[in-house]
Amino acid sequence: MNLDHLNKEQQKAATHIEGPLLILAGAGSGKTATMTHRIAYLIEQGISPYSILAVTFTNKAAGEMRERVEKLVGPCPNMWIMTFHAMSLRILREHYYAAGYDKNFVVYDTVDQKTIIKNIIKEQNIDSKQFPQAYLSAIISKEKEADSDPEQFLEMNGENPKTKVIYNVYKEYQRQLKANNAMDFDDLLVNALHVLRENPNILAQYQNRFKYIMVDEYQDTNHIQYEIIRMMAKAHKNLCVVGDDDQCIYQWRGADIRNILDFEKDFPTAKVIKLEQNYRSCGNILAAAHSVIKNNRGRKAKKLWTEAEAGAPIVYKRCDSDKEEAYYVAQEIDLLSGGRSYDDFAVLYRTNAQSRLFEDALKRRHIPYQILSGFSFYERKETKDMICYMRLVVNPSDDLAVKRIINEPKRGIGPTTLGKLEALAKVNNRSLFETLSQEEVIYSLPAKASASVKEMMDVMQLCQQEKDNLRVSDIYDNLLVKTGYLKALEDENTVESESRIENLLDFKSFIYDFEEEKAATGEKATMEEFLERVATDSDTDKYDDEAGKVTLMTMHSAKGLEFPIVFMPGMEDGLFPGHRALDSENGIEEERRLCYVGMTRAKEKLFLTSAAYRVLYGHGDYTRESTFLRELDKSLLDEAGDSIYEPSRRTNNRLGVSTGSLDGYSETPAFRPYNYDPLKFAKQAVKESAAGNSEDFMQGDQVTHGKFGHGIVVDTDAKTVTVVFDEGGIKKLAKGIAPLKKV
Q: For residue 111, which of 375, 456, 454 has the smallest C-alpha distance?
């Protein structure tokens, strides 16, 4: 393999095979190229891909790494390149019995967690003002990250009224998860750790398999992740970790910077290689970022450098107010956008609460934008409803999903009726779905509710029976149409309902992408894996770098991304660094690392702004410029800010030219001939797919199937069609749902 395009330190890292290795990779230093070439080099040296494990923190990073490795060495289907959660999930899928779960367990996301805890608060008559759901969720998550169960929590904190309430909620929360055959995100890691720790034979299986382990973003690992990796690498000690202590910005959610700072203590024979040459940013940007981060005590000594030119100075603007700040940023984007794509611009703020003014300012200038954080696509009501329908196809024991969708759309099931059904299920020790599967229960419901619930149950049971004979997209179409969900939205006939339909159809595009991705690798696209993908997806995974829009996002969300021009507003004490961070050295150091991350996202030009007066969370106050501004090397600054407003630049002002829609999410639609209505077309396609087949089949008919391809009909009856497929073998398919067509 030709490694000439790598620098000397990158080559050293890529060709290091045996023994522990710490790669300190600064921002923009080509760590992904180094990691992918190291994996490819291992394979070229005769090491089986089956023996290699590479762990990342996002699905996007894992996908990119696999793609780049396979470009170098060809397909590696048996190599694990995945996130910590995906790795834990796969271990638990293979050894679910050791974790005490059924094979078809599901993964609950943060919305599900909120729902369960809110219900527990209500059931236990807890004062939600004194114990808010968000507080209880955070405590439970923190305890799980420390590998502390409810009993251990109580033992560590002692019995007092406060800890007793938290203990009761935590214990009931875990009971309900187990009863629903479900795990939350934290459980994936905790249960995987326990399976490996408590079953030496299972641990040995993975130790023997994965002789070479690589971990990306090692500075972001928490206690559980550290323990899992340490155990798996113990046998061969061929552990390579890649990270940057200067970019450890997730301590608030459990990341432990000591994992990377103490790596050489854990592995005394470790080799350390520093990647300090930056390939992203201009010299001034790197120098400015270093002048800030060097003030941190808890870091390993290193300094990024570049062969690129110094570039433009850092622009700093002190505005009179937060509204003027937003106006200034929007105006600069407008002025600089001539000949550039809006993708080149990013506004990185400390908190989501800052986004509104920038949205307003960009709308006024008709500048399209995308927000990469806040309310996730998968947390929108309509999307969440359909995900719950899909979860029930996989796991009928999911009571939480039943309670969410039983009256979506309206079926005449109110809180009182649902309460009675829950009580009946509890008495008979059955799930809600099992209870509703009994005809006598359905017929005991009010007439309107009885008919609609039976219709829903028939659809759900049919989808469950035919799950293995249908594509994920086929199941989705049937659920969307035959449950009455799509019709209910159409009947509303409002702008909001139309928007929700668009979201649901956009969700189907995501399903198609998933199916195509699996088909390209020769794997089967299963409902279980799709739901896992949805549950573990992240904001960064959904970032679209070709959207033609300015990106608004928090600095935490920006990690791993880069933009030619970056704006960092809100450079004020109390906002950045935040009030809480000012109380401790650890807090201020993490905020300083976050500032460093934000600054090093910029490739060509960096703007820093602050407001003398700011309204935040409904309260207005005068501000002081950020500590980080005072630390910044002043020789690198264009402190005037206004100096770029020269008369000659005014000619580039495109104010008044329509460049996108006012809502900031969709651009002006292109001209479409023949009155083509894409939404109408998409709805019709879904309905036709859900209609199944209305043809009469006879023995000898040649048919095609959406999942199994070409086949010949060998038998039929009133409800089924039996087909011998060229590749899928003999399948007995249900009429009315099987996507069969005569050739």
A: 375
The catalytically annotated residue of 66, 365, 601, 605 is 601
User: For 250-306, what is each residue's pLDDT tens digit?
Assistant: 776 677 888 898 899 999 999 999 999 988 999 999 999 999 999 998 888 888 889
- Indicate if the pLDDT at residue 227 is higher than 50: yes
Give strand ranges (E) for 586-708.
Answer: 602-616, 619-622, 637-638, 702-705
DSSP E strands, 216-344: 239-243, 271-275, 314-321
Q: Set out the domains of the chain in order of their start, with CATH numbers.
A: 8-96+190-275 (3.40.50.300), 106-180 (1.10.10.160), 283-374+543-652 (3.40.50.300), 381-534 (1.10.486.10), 692-742 (2.30.30)
Which pLDDT belongs to residue 732? Answer: 85
Q: Given 32, 251, 461, 659, which residue is catalytic?
A: 32
Instruction: Specify the pTM.
Output: 0.73
Please state, in angstroms and rounded to a whole number, the distance separating the CA atoms of residues 272 and 374. 38
Residues 6 or more apart from 564 whose CB is under 8 A from it? Answer: 340, 344, 345, 602, 603, 604, 605
Output the 3-class SS for 494-544: CHHHHHHHHHHHHHHHHHHHHHHHHHHCCCCCCHHHHHHHHHHCCCHHHCC
Count of residues for the chain? 743
Residue 712 CA to residue 702 CA, distance in Å, equals 5
Of residues 56 and 247, more confidently modeled: 56
Q: With a cut of 70, say whether residue 656 has pLDDT above it.
A: no
540 is catalytic: no
Q: What DSSP character marks residue 346?
A: E
User: Is 56 a residue of the active site?
Assistant: no
Cis peptide, bond prior to residue 20, ω within 30 of zero: no
Strands 550-554, 720-725: pairing kind: unpaired
pLDDT surpasses 60 at 678: no
Write the pLDDT tens digit of every residue in 428-442. 899 999 999 988 888
> What is the C-alpha separation between 287 and 269, in angstroms, rounded?
33
| Residue of 375 and 681 predicted with greater confidence | 681
10 has catalytic annotation? no
Query: Does residue 379 carry a catalytic annotation?
Result: no
Tell me how crowded residue 624 is: count the other CB atoms within 10 A of its CB: 12
Report whether pLDDT(670) > 80. Answer: no
Beta pairing partners, 615: 620
Q: What is the distance of C-alpha 96 from the center of its chain?
A: 24
216 in catalytic set: yes
- Of 80-84, 661-665, 696-700, the one with minimum mean pLDDT is 661-665
Out of 58, 113, 247, 370, which one is annotated catalytic? 247
Report, as an integer, the average pLDDT of 414-419. Answer: 88
- Closest by CA to 287, choosing from 272, 261, 308, 273, is 308
Distance (Å, whole) CA 628 – CA 582: 12
Give mean pLDDT, residues 514-522. 84
What DSSP character marks residue 344?
A: G
Which of 109, 184, 186, 217 is the catalytic position?
A: 217
Which among 10, 31, 225, 474 is annotated as catalytic? 31
601 is catalytic: yes
DSSP 177-213: HHHTTEEEHHHHHHHHHHHHHH-HHHHHHHHHH-SEE
